[in-house]
Task: structure prediction
Amino acid sequence: MTTPTRAARTTRPVVAVVGAGIAGLAAAWELASETADGPPVDVVVLEAAGRPGGKLRSVDLDGRRVDLAADAFLARRPEATELCRELGLGDELVAPGQSGASVLARGRLRQLPGGLHLGIPTRFGPLVRSGMFSPAELVRAALDVVVPRARAHPVLGDAAVGSLVGDRLGRAVVDRLVGPLLGGINAGDPDQLSAAATVPVLLAAASQTGSLMRRLREAGTRASARPSELGPAEPPQGGAPPPVFWSLRSSTASLAEAVDGALATRGATRHVDSAVERLERVGDRWRLHLAPGSPAGDHVDADGVVLAVPAGPAASLLRPHVPAAAELLEGVEYASVTVVTLAIPEASVPGSLAGTGFLVPRNEHVGGRPALVTGCTYLSLKWPHLRRHGELLVRASTGRAGDDRPADLDDDELAAAVSAELAEILGTGPLAPDALVTRWVDALPQYRPGHLLRVARVEEAVGKLPALAVAGAAYRGVGVPACVGSGRAAARSVREAVASRPEPGSG
Ligand SMILES: Cc1cc2nc3c(=O)[nH]c(=O)nc-3n(C[C@H](O)[C@H](O)[C@H](O)COP(=O)(O)OP(=O)(O)OC[C@H]3O[C@@H](n4cnc5c(N)ncnc54)[C@H](O)[C@@H]3O)c2cc1C
Result:
């Protein structure tokens, strides 16, 4: 009698990946790769939408592929760059042609001060020189330096970024620096963002005595060796600094297309228009019930499942099996963002624009009204391969946690409002509201204080189910590299669980 071993299996286990965003695609890529520590598995990717990629999407504009959401990924976190290299896209990686950004503060664009750690100042001098703060606001920030706390408040577990920074450096620093910079990544509100999940170093720094700026400066030096969702505040000193961000010449979204294409060559089955409506447990296997009309039929049977969908759909699918985890997932809120892409005649822009774009704090007004625009990327300056003579291609973002005004405007109204605000901010004459409007509804998960505990509990509950793991932006990082990393880690754990089982029917 032969003992069933990995080599002795006669049928390949099937692993289903639900969701073909970058997390699901990375999971499928990991599963489809030949490895020494696990048998090859048959991979089936099931995607609800009509195309793979999820939040990665681009459009052709006059022969250029222009990203409609993520246009860059962090270079210091290795996962996305490694994936590009594995796919043979190393030569396609492009670095931004400009660096730095501005903030609309006290009525005009001002360059971000140096010495920021994820938007939090670590030095006082650059704050003074930035012109972003009134004398009274600077005095308030300086209290951190001149009146170091005798006793710090130990932060137990987690707290909101806004309260930790505001307590030490004053409200203006939160509103004009921390909010726009952190919000530029996840459209979040600093008063409701978990420090543990978004700026972990702040928790330790705020618990210590002495100046917060100094503690962050010290921690920043140590942390520069570790990968972070948001990357370093400033490039390392000495020598040519490596780029902080990468994109691909054919757009950041082309990473998803490349993974999808490579999966086809590795024999993975991929189905679009195939929403998974229900997960049924059959012994230690799974039956995935599909929405009517799926080209994959009415169900798919699998030995293991990677669930790489946003928190809401994950909660619905998991509810019958782990109701408490489903409830925790339901509690993850999402912010909607609408981006407006438009070409501005270069000649209409007075002077030269600095950096890759600008951010707009929540309480700034433009044209006498609260600004709709939350930030703007100068796409054709940031990415020289997008440049066309005489034209500045820009992408403005609108909407964020707590501000859903764009949902009340139709595309034409929003394009007109954004064009008018950009004209005012950039000092151009009136701009034609001829723009491409892309709505990302409930797109960015908001990591509230306690988020990491929530995620740990979900993972613990899900870990007790047979060969099932969750992945994606809802959990431990919204950036593309974090999503790639979470997809691959989920795939490894499911492959291991599947590999450790005896072959069905082997007794
Ligand atoms: C406007 C915008 C700008 C951004 N900019 C950047 C940036 O510059 N850099 C960066 O690193 N990150 C950026 N991000 C964040 C990043 O792009 C996303 O967090 C990431 O792409 C999410 O990947 P994901 O695979 O976790 O989820 P998603 O991309 O949401 O993929 C999940 C997939 O699951 C599918 N699905 C849902 N339910 C089901 C079901 N029941 N059955 C089957 N399929 C289902 C969905 O259709 C979707 O395709 C940005 C995001 C947005 C919205």
User: Anything to note?
Assistant: The mean pLDDT is 91. DSSP finds 17 helices and 24 strands in the chain.
